[in-house]
Design goal:
By secondary structure, the chain is an all-alpha fold. It contains 4 helices and no strands. The N and C termini lie far apart (46 Å).
Length: 83
């Protein structure tokens, strides 16, 4: 394993406290956790693209980043109706 794969593993492990906060927090906290998890997921996929030396994996991370932002915007719109 090279240093890029270790960095991806550390960032992936950083999602565990976010999972705890999403389960125990209120819906607004869950929305913030969703945004941060999207950013961490995008970074993990970018680091894996470099670590495996596959440029195709970078495209997946760009698509995840775009869908993450649009998903959070949709969540804010729907959450505004219930809060």
């Amino acid at each position: 394993m090279n240093v890029w794969l270790w960095a991806a593993a550390v960032l992936l492990a950083a999602n565990l406290p976010l999972l705890v906060l999403a389960v125990r927090g209120d819906p607004l906290d869950g929305l913030v956790v969703l945004e941060l998890a999207g950013v961490l997921g995008t970074l993990v996929l970018l680091i894996l693209a470099v670590g495996f030396d596959r440029s195709v994996y970078g495209i997946v991370s760009v698509v995840l980043g775009a869908f993450s932002v649009s998903g959070v915007l949709l969540g804010v719109r729907l959450l505004g109706r219930w809060v």
